[in-house]
Amino acid sequence: MTTVLDSLPLNDVLRDILSPFDLPPVEDVATRRRLARTLLSGRDNGFEGLALAYAVIAFCASTEDGAAAVLDAVRDNAEALVLDGVRGGYVLLPCAQDQHAGLARELYDRVGGDVWMAVAWAPRRDLAAARATAQDVLRIAAGRAPGVYELRTVLADFVVLRQPHVAERLARMIEPVVAQQPLLDALRAFIAEDGNRAAAARRLDIHRSTLDHRLRLVERLTGCRPASPRALLTLSVALTAHSCPEVPLPH
Protein backbone atom coordinates (compact mmCIF):
# COMPACT_ATOMS: atom_id res chain seq x y z
CA MET A 1 0.00 0.00 0.00
CA THR A 2 1.35 3.41 -0.96
CA THR A 3 1.07 6.10 1.70
CA VAL A 4 1.39 9.86 1.51
CA LEU A 5 4.82 9.56 3.13
CA ASP A 6 5.91 7.19 0.38
CA SER A 7 4.96 9.68 -2.30
CA LEU A 8 6.62 12.80 -0.81
CA PRO A 9 10.31 13.54 -0.26
CA LEU A 10 11.17 13.44 3.44
CA ASN A 11 12.32 17.07 3.47
CA ASP A 12 8.94 18.18 2.17
CA VAL A 13 7.16 16.20 4.88
CA LEU A 14 9.32 17.71 7.61
CA ARG A 15 8.77 21.19 6.23
CA ASP A 16 5.01 20.71 6.33
CA ILE A 17 5.15 19.40 9.90
CA LEU A 18 7.52 21.99 11.31
CA SER A 19 6.44 25.13 9.46
CA PRO A 20 3.42 27.09 10.71
CA PHE A 21 0.94 27.98 7.98
CA ASP A 22 -1.83 29.93 9.68
CA LEU A 23 -0.05 32.67 11.61
CA PRO A 24 -1.15 36.31 11.66
CA PRO A 25 0.79 38.50 9.22
CA VAL A 26 4.19 39.71 10.39
CA GLU A 27 2.77 43.23 10.68
CA ASP A 28 0.42 42.02 13.43
CA VAL A 29 3.04 42.32 16.15
CA ALA A 30 0.63 42.36 19.09
CA THR A 31 -1.11 39.12 18.10
CA ARG A 32 2.18 37.33 17.51
CA ARG A 33 3.44 38.55 20.87
CA ARG A 34 0.34 37.21 22.63
CA LEU A 35 0.76 33.89 20.87
CA ALA A 36 4.42 33.64 21.91
CA ARG A 37 3.54 34.48 25.53
CA THR A 38 0.82 31.82 25.56
CA LEU A 39 3.08 29.10 24.19
CA LEU A 40 5.99 29.98 26.49
CA SER A 41 3.71 29.88 29.52
CA GLY A 42 2.82 26.28 28.72
CA ARG A 43 -0.70 26.95 27.49
CA ASP A 44 -1.14 25.37 24.07
CA ASN A 45 -4.92 25.80 23.77
CA GLY A 46 -4.97 23.44 20.81
CA PHE A 47 -3.77 26.02 18.31
CA GLU A 48 -4.21 24.84 14.75
CA GLY A 49 -1.48 25.22 12.16
CA LEU A 50 1.47 25.81 14.49
CA ALA A 51 4.77 23.97 14.30
CA LEU A 52 5.16 20.88 16.44
CA ALA A 53 8.55 21.96 17.82
CA TYR A 54 10.49 25.20 18.26
CA ALA A 55 13.90 26.61 19.02
CA VAL A 56 13.48 28.95 21.99
CA ILE A 57 16.12 31.68 21.79
CA ALA A 58 16.35 33.85 24.89
CA PHE A 59 18.39 36.98 24.27
CA CYS A 60 19.58 40.10 26.03
CA ALA A 61 21.70 43.05 24.95
CA SER A 62 23.79 45.68 26.68
CA THR A 63 21.70 48.42 25.06
CA GLU A 64 18.15 48.92 23.83
CA ASP A 65 19.53 49.35 20.31
CA GLY A 66 21.17 45.93 20.54
CA ALA A 67 17.89 44.29 21.48
CA ALA A 68 16.12 46.17 18.70
CA ALA A 69 18.65 44.78 16.22
CA VAL A 70 17.59 41.23 17.16
CA LEU A 71 13.95 42.11 16.54
CA ASP A 72 14.82 43.74 13.22
CA ALA A 73 16.66 40.58 12.15
CA VAL A 74 13.48 38.46 12.47
CA ARG A 75 10.88 41.11 11.70
CA ASP A 76 10.15 39.79 8.20
CA ASN A 77 10.35 36.10 9.14
CA ALA A 78 6.84 34.77 8.58
CA GLU A 79 7.52 31.80 10.89
CA ALA A 80 9.00 33.66 13.87
CA LEU A 81 7.16 34.39 17.10
CA VAL A 82 8.64 37.04 19.40
CA LEU A 83 8.05 38.05 23.00
CA ASP A 84 10.12 41.18 23.47
CA GLY A 85 11.11 43.49 26.30
CA VAL A 86 13.28 46.59 26.49
CA ARG A 87 16.70 44.91 26.41
CA GLY A 88 15.82 41.26 25.95
CA GLY A 89 13.20 38.74 24.96
CA TYR A 90 12.45 35.45 23.28
CA VAL A 91 12.39 34.37 19.65
CA LEU A 92 10.59 31.16 18.71
CA LEU A 93 11.59 29.53 15.44
CA PRO A 94 10.13 26.24 14.15
CA CYS A 95 12.82 23.63 13.52
CA ALA A 96 13.95 20.05 13.95
CA GLN A 97 15.99 19.23 17.05
CA ASP A 98 19.35 19.17 15.28
CA GLN A 99 18.82 22.65 13.78
CA HIS A 100 18.18 24.86 16.83
CA ALA A 101 21.79 25.77 17.62
CA GLY A 102 22.53 26.59 13.99
CA LEU A 103 19.50 28.87 13.76
CA ALA A 104 20.61 30.74 16.88
CA ARG A 105 24.14 31.18 15.53
CA GLU A 106 22.78 32.45 12.20
CA LEU A 107 20.68 35.00 14.07
CA TYR A 108 23.63 36.09 16.20
CA ASP A 109 25.85 36.45 13.14
CA ARG A 110 23.29 38.81 11.62
CA VAL A 111 23.20 40.94 14.77
CA GLY A 112 26.63 40.71 16.42
CA GLY A 113 27.70 43.25 19.01
CA ASP A 114 27.09 42.95 22.74
CA VAL A 115 24.26 40.45 22.49
CA TRP A 116 23.93 37.22 24.42
CA MET A 117 21.73 34.34 23.29
CA ALA A 118 20.74 31.05 24.90
CA VAL A 119 18.94 28.44 22.86
CA ALA A 120 16.88 25.39 23.83
CA TRP A 121 14.66 23.13 21.77
CA ALA A 122 11.37 21.49 22.69
CA PRO A 123 8.14 20.08 21.28
CA ARG A 124 5.34 22.59 21.55
CA ARG A 125 3.89 21.04 24.70
CA ASP A 126 7.22 21.51 26.53
CA LEU A 127 8.00 25.10 25.57
CA ALA A 128 7.55 26.39 29.13
CA ALA A 129 10.35 24.10 30.29
CA ALA A 130 12.53 25.15 27.35
CA ARG A 131 11.91 28.78 28.28
CA ALA A 132 13.09 28.14 31.87
CA THR A 133 16.21 26.36 30.63
CA ALA A 134 17.04 29.11 28.14
CA GLN A 135 16.54 31.77 30.81
CA ASP A 136 18.95 30.06 33.25
CA VAL A 137 21.52 29.50 30.51
CA LEU A 138 21.24 33.16 29.53
CA ARG A 139 21.89 34.24 33.13
CA ILE A 140 25.14 32.25 33.04
CA ALA A 141 26.06 33.51 29.57
CA ALA A 142 25.52 37.14 30.54
CA GLY A 143 28.62 36.95 32.73
CA ARG A 144 30.72 35.77 29.79
CA ALA A 145 31.62 36.96 26.31
CA PRO A 146 28.74 37.77 23.93
CA GLY A 147 27.64 34.88 21.74
CA VAL A 148 25.36 31.85 21.59
CA TYR A 149 25.18 29.40 24.48
CA GLU A 150 23.53 26.02 24.98
CA LEU A 151 22.91 24.00 28.11
CA ARG A 152 25.72 21.58 27.25
CA THR A 153 28.28 24.43 27.18
CA VAL A 154 27.44 25.67 30.70
CA LEU A 155 26.23 22.44 32.28
CA ALA A 156 28.22 22.61 35.54
CA ASP A 157 27.12 26.20 36.20
CA PHE A 158 23.53 25.29 35.35
CA VAL A 159 23.45 22.42 37.83
CA VAL A 160 24.83 24.61 40.61
CA LEU A 161 22.28 27.36 39.97
CA ARG A 162 19.54 24.76 40.35
CA GLN A 163 20.98 23.84 43.80
CA PRO A 164 20.79 27.04 45.90
CA HIS A 165 22.57 25.59 48.96
CA VAL A 166 25.55 24.57 46.82
CA ALA A 167 25.59 27.92 45.02
CA GLU A 168 25.59 29.74 48.37
CA ARG A 169 28.56 27.76 49.64
CA LEU A 170 30.57 28.40 46.48
CA ALA A 171 29.68 32.10 46.53
CA ARG A 172 31.01 32.39 50.08
CA MET A 173 34.19 30.56 49.08
CA ILE A 174 34.99 32.95 46.22
CA GLU A 175 34.02 36.15 48.06
CA PRO A 176 37.59 37.00 49.24
CA VAL A 177 38.78 36.82 45.62
CA VAL A 178 35.91 38.91 44.30
CA ALA A 179 36.74 41.57 46.89
CA GLN A 180 40.21 42.08 45.37
CA GLN A 181 39.95 43.31 41.78
CA PRO A 182 43.47 42.29 40.64
CA LEU A 183 42.86 38.71 41.83
CA LEU A 184 39.41 38.63 40.26
CA ASP A 185 40.76 39.91 36.94
CA ALA A 186 43.58 37.34 37.01
CA LEU A 187 41.20 34.47 37.70
CA ARG A 188 38.73 35.55 35.02
CA ALA A 189 41.49 35.89 32.43
CA PHE A 190 42.91 32.49 33.37
CA ILE A 191 39.47 30.92 32.99
CA ALA A 192 38.83 32.72 29.70
CA GLU A 193 42.10 31.37 28.33
CA ASP A 194 41.36 27.79 29.47
CA GLY A 195 44.24 27.76 31.93
CA ASN A 196 46.88 29.09 29.54
CA ARG A 197 49.15 31.27 31.68
CA ALA A 198 50.92 33.03 28.82
CA ALA A 199 47.66 33.92 27.07
CA ALA A 200 46.07 35.12 30.32
CA ALA A 201 49.07 37.33 31.08
CA ARG A 202 48.88 38.84 27.59
CA ARG A 203 45.16 39.44 28.01
CA LEU A 204 45.84 41.40 31.20
CA ASP A 205 49.02 43.03 29.85
CA ILE A 206 51.00 41.90 32.89
CA HIS A 207 54.13 39.78 33.37
CA ARG A 208 53.55 36.06 33.72
CA SER A 209 55.22 36.05 37.14
CA THR A 210 52.70 38.65 38.30
CA LEU A 211 49.88 36.44 37.11
CA ASP A 212 51.40 33.42 38.89
CA HIS A 213 51.64 35.41 42.12
CA ARG A 214 47.98 36.42 41.91
CA LEU A 215 46.87 32.88 41.15
CA ARG A 216 48.79 31.63 44.20
CA LEU A 217 46.86 34.15 46.29
CA VAL A 218 43.62 32.83 44.78
CA GLU A 219 44.62 29.34 45.87
CA ARG A 220 45.49 30.53 49.37
CA LEU A 221 42.12 32.26 49.78
CA THR A 222 39.95 29.50 48.33
CA GLY A 223 41.85 26.25 48.77
CA CYS A 224 41.45 25.61 45.02
CA ARG A 225 44.58 25.45 42.85
CA PRO A 226 43.78 27.19 39.52
CA ALA A 227 46.36 25.05 37.68
CA SER A 228 44.20 21.98 38.32
CA PRO A 229 41.49 21.62 35.64
CA ARG A 230 38.98 20.33 38.20
CA ALA A 231 39.75 23.14 40.64
CA LEU A 232 39.58 25.72 37.86
CA LEU A 233 36.11 24.46 36.95
CA THR A 234 35.09 24.80 40.59
CA LEU A 235 36.40 28.37 40.69
CA SER A 236 34.59 29.21 37.45
CA VAL A 237 31.30 27.85 38.78
CA ALA A 238 31.86 29.71 42.05
CA LEU A 239 32.18 33.00 40.15
CA THR A 240 28.91 32.25 38.39
CA ALA A 241 27.23 31.47 41.72
CA HIS A 242 28.53 34.73 43.20
CA SER A 243 27.67 37.14 40.42
CA CYS A 244 25.16 35.49 38.09
CA PRO A 245 23.07 38.48 36.95
CA GLU A 246 19.37 38.71 36.43
CA VAL A 247 18.60 39.21 32.75
CA PRO A 248 16.04 41.69 31.35
CA LEU A 249 13.50 39.21 30.03
CA PRO A 250 9.76 39.81 29.80
CA HIS A 251 7.48 37.78 32.07
Automatic annotation (TrEMBL):
Residues covered by the PucR C-terminal helix-turn-helix domain: 183-241
Q: Which domain of life is it from?
A: Bacteria
Question: What SUPFAM superfamilies does UniProt report for this protein, alphabetically?
Answer: Homeodomain-like
Classification from the root reads: Bacteria, Bacillati, Actinomycetota, Actinomycetes, Pseudonocardiales
Q: What is this protein called?
A: PucR C-terminal helix-turn-helix domain-containing protein
One matching Pfam family is HTH_30
- Which stretch is the leader sequence? none
